[in-house]
Amino acid sequence: MMEPSSRTTGSLSGIRVIDLTRVISGPFCTQILGDHGAEVIKVESPGRGDVVRAQGNMVNGFSWYFAQFNRNKRSVTLDLRQEAGRAVLHRLLEGGDVLVENFRPGVLAKMGLDDETLRAQYPHLVVGRINGFGSTGPYRDRPAYDFIAQAMSGFMGVNGPADGEPMRAAPPISDMVASQNLAFGICAALVRRERSGQGDIVETALTNGLIGMMGYLAAEFFATDRIPARTGNDHPMLYPYGLFRASDGEVAIAPSNDAMVERLFRALGMLHLLDDERFADNNRRMANREALRECLTAVTETRSVDAWIDHLNRAGVPCGRVHDLRETFADPQVQAQQMRIELDQGELGRIPVTGFPVKMQEAPAAVHHPVPRLGEHTREILAELGLDEDELKALEAQGVI
């Protein structure tokens, strides 16, 4: 059995994660665990590995797309279709704390690792899984990707202009949300295990994650039985709240209550609008949105975006510029929060990736390992399991590693 690792720091130091995931949902989850100190062993198929290793823009033969989701891991290659590969996996699980997989429901069971077997052989183990629709219900066996989850969750149906078609979010949001949900669920199960000694099986699904994010839109549907209308960049329940034209672009303005609306009107020199019965409260402002937009735009287009950002923020009205990614990562606030970091990939140079969104004072997230090459740590990890050189050569000859 592998000895507990002391190579990392962080809240999850000493936790070993066996990572069978690929693409985004799953790898993002295990990266989060690794960022906070868990030892993550990424199990990949020999020869090819995670398909994302060959996707996206390649720099010096290396995928920066893959790098975005796979720091703080070690890579071991195992052919899990072979009995000898599965035997090594079992040895990993004996010393593991967490197993994470994102196969379609039933695939792990075909490897001999159904839920009953996992509970019986590894009662301490926390098993985390991500799939498209969950492991029960009529859609459990359907393949799913982010676009399908965005469509079927209702998420896409509430996004886009009122007179246009439904719109997807550009980032793979269902994958990212499901991964974050799973990381949270795994941590909750580990806390419970500390108290009970018993592991758990934790599941998240792409579609469920987005349904869980519908927030006040779901609440309004439940309350009224009306389908929320698409409102583009306007808030579906508040006005004024959205993008407004300035002299050199658009400024995002977000007064979220009547007090902030009053501050906005005062800052614009338009306090008299509160005496206009069309705009006296939020319900009437929503009903007369276009008329109010015209009034406000007549003023906002007289000054620049920068001028409004300075003036309105000083007045206590939340506002900001619509950034492209170059502007985002050049922003001094983003830089102060270290939301762009670099990984030292040796001969490949330094690779920029997004930073750590969760800030902790006593046990902060950190880079413990750069992004691994395929199978980079196979021999190292298998030697830690107790396999000798002859056994490693035999596995290589069989194509298991």
UniProtKB/TrEMBL annotation:
Q: Would I find Transferase among this entry's keywords?
A: yes
What Pfam families does the record tag this protein with?
Answer: CoA_transf_3
Q: Metal-binding among the record's keywords?
A: no
Q: Which InterPro entries match?
A: CoA-transferase_III_domain, CoA-Trfase_fam_III, CoA-Trfase_III_dom3_sf, CoA-Trfase_III_dom_1_sf
Keyword tags: Transferase
Q: What domain of life is recorded for the organism?
A: Bacteria
Q: Name one GO molecular function term.
A: CoA-transferase activity
Q: Which PANTHER family match?
A: SUCCINATE--HYDROXYMETHYLGLUTARATE COA-TRANSFERASE (PTHR48207)
Name the chain's protein: Crotonobetainyl-CoA:carnitine CoA-transferase CaiB-like acyl-CoA transferase
Q: What is the originating organism of this protein? A: Halomonas ventosae
Q: What is the lineage of its organism?
A: Bacteria, Pseudomonadati, Pseudomonadota, Gammaproteobacteria, Oceanospirillales
